[in-house]
Design a protein that fits this description.
By secondary structure, the protein is α/β, with parallel strands linked by helices. The protein is built from seven helices and twelve strands. 26% of the residues lie in helices and 22% in strands. A hairpin with a 5-residue loop joins β8 and β9. α1 runs antiparallel to α2 (50-63). The chain binds S-adenosylmethionine.
């Protein structure tokens, strides 16, 4: 059985005061009635409480990912601002910067209307990337994607619930783009469904009943038989680790989530991977 959390690097030490501060911030985000929130019927990025999920991830970004207020952040597949809204309460108004990118017009329009006017350091851009479910008429193939930013722009890249909807070729393209865009020492925070033995066999009997993944041929993909293929994509354990390394991103944290039926403080699996600079 795989370990719940494999930490390849020592975690940045949190003092109890810092830890309390993060918890306070998360509670403040959850309780703040003035933060923008889309109407429930416009939320296309998954179930769960929009604000609570954002507050939860803010904690993971800081604790597991080492996100800091002065960072320049890129959120690939930002959807309708679920991660951006809590980040408005953390990123420094002058030094910190956020760019969100997504193929879904409605999500980007909402973010531009309700986030950017109050937080001008938060920018959102629509990119017409084709996706069978999210953007079927898209003009840009995900296999030939070049993200519209110059090299080495970002300290922190977010991909939450994105590779859970992508075929493997597109994952590889995205990771190579992330490696191009990160500054040396910059980090990718990515969630995924990693299919280890526990997840594949549901040995605990506690796996999320909606995610009875079956392997597609010889892998690396796993799909859920009764769903459209890209509604939920899992990968053979090891595939994403190798893909990250191949792109030049060193895995710092791999933390397995409770969707597979084991204890964890997060649902999907989480990778944090660092760009260490060009290897000689
Ligand atoms: C499940 S949603 C997650 C949204 C957001 N990351 C969050 O956690 O709230 C998946 C998002 O990925 C976007 N997406 C789909 N294909 C993409 C691609 N090739 N590149 C970037 N984003 C993509 C979708 O439009 C959608 O907003």
């Amino acid at each position: 059985m795989s370990e719940a959390a494999i930490r390849h690097e020592p975690a940045p030490e949190m003092t109890p005061v810092q830890d309390d501060h993060i918890r306070w911030l998360q509670e403040a985000v959850s309780r703040n009635r003035y933060l923008p929130q889309p109407q429930a019927n416009n939320v296309f990025v998954g179930d769960g409480d929009f604000k609570a999920v954002g507050a939860e991830f803010l904690g993971h970004f800081i604790r597991m990912g080492g996100l800091r207020p002065e960072h320049r952040v890129l959120d690939i597949g930002c959807g309708i601002g679920r991660m951006a809204v809590p980040l408005t309460q953390y990123l420094d108004f002058e030094k910190g910067h956020y760019n969100g990118l997504d193929p879904v017009e409605g999500g980007i329009a909402w973010c531009r209307r309700f986030i950017t006017p109050a937080y001008p350091n938060f920018n959102f851009q629509r990119l017409d990337i084709a996706h069978n479910l999210y953007n079927p008429q898209g003009k840009i193939s995900g296999e030939a994607l070049r993200l519209p930013y110059p090299d080495r722009q970002f300290d922190f890249v977010i991909m939450t619930s994105v590779v859970t909807h992508l075929p493997p070729d597109e994952v590889l393209v995205h990771l190579s783009e992330v490696a191009r865009l990160l500054k040396p020492g910059g980090r990718l925070f990515m969630t995924a469904f990693v299919i280890d033995q526990l997840a594949a066999e549901n040995a605990s009997g506690r796996r999320d009943a909606r995610l009875a993944f079956a392997r597609d041929g010889n892998g690396p993909c796993w799909f859920v038989p009764d769903m459209p293929r890209l509604a939920a994509v899992g990968f053979d354990d090891g595939f994403l680790d190798r893909a990250l390394e191949k792109a030049g991103l060193q895995v710092a944290v791999k933390s397995l989530g409770h969707w597979r039926g084991q204890d964890a403080d997060h649902y999907q699996d989480i990778y944090v991977a660092e760009y260490r600079g060009a290897q000689r």
